[in-house]
Design brief:
One of its GO terms (molecular function) is peptidyl-prolyl cis-trans isomerase activity. Keywords: Isomerase, Rotamase, Signal. Its EC number is 5.2.1.8. The protein is mainly beta. The protein has two domains: 182 residues, Chitinase A, domain 3; 127 residues, Chitinase A, domain 3. It contains five helices and 17 strands. The two termini are 21 Å apart.
Length: 335
Amino acid sequence: MIPTTKRVRRIVAVLAVPAILLPVAACGSEDEGSGSSGASGPVATVSGQPGEQPEITVEEDAAVGDETVSQVIDEGDGAEVQEGDFVRVNVVGRTIQGDMELINTWKSASGDELATEEEGPRPQVIVQAGTESALPAVATEPLIGQTVGSRIQVEGNSVDMLGAAAQQGGIPEDDGIVWVFDIAGAVSVDPEAAAEGEQAAVEEGMPEVEAAAGEPATITVPEGEDPPAELREQVLIEGDGPEVTEGQALVVQYTGVIWDSGEQFDSSWDRESASAFQIGTGQVVQGWDQGLVGKHVGDRVLLVIPPDLGYGSEERGGIPADSTLVFVVDIVGAA
């Protein structure tokens, strides 16, 4: 469990219900190499400049076919997305017949317009191209082979585009979904990647850390030591990659334990895959946003997060209320 905030969980509840694909304008050219079907083409029309909120128009009584259709509306000049890449996107998604907006990263949860990217990073969504992740693989396959900076439209039936989430959200099987993705960044990461190098000794009062290759870190909380009242952080291994900045997609391996009990409550190593999220935009707990921005790809970071920068007085997934949390985080990629 990545330590997400409530707001992010609301987004992920829609997204992890596979919701991150885009609809494209009729003016684009159909991309035969990105999973497009032999259908006549998209039924939605997308307008608007790249980088700006797209407008999606669907004619009355329009219906999608049985196959997924994708289209490149605008082509970027960045790196090419590979299968399995972690891709950071702005996205608008809506149903075809029900006219229900599923997600819009240009708007807040209350529907207000968010600041422009020039004014600061905007919350975005992270998916894995062509891999079962926040969205079904079929929904993100059309991103493979496209370039960063591109706007892509994807349409298909609700089951393919959202998986089980379609039924959970009350979307009929015969309805369609259209997604419009603006690809903002992408990074390839080995699922077994970890920080490499000699680990520094932990500072006084900090938990001891032993990290065997490919396994959750063993974190030993100092016996009889009261948890710190403020965020404490230490870089245990210094990487030589780029500095992490707000708004990036961050790919990490991590292990988390509860200070009071020393019990592990989660580790990406147990899932045999790195985890990804957007950093510095309030999508994770404040302790991660504050402790990981400014670090470097390749770093191993020890974080001790007090309750007010974690989950506060709220019980979360078996973590007691008012818990101090300890994480060992390997930063293995950023985009």
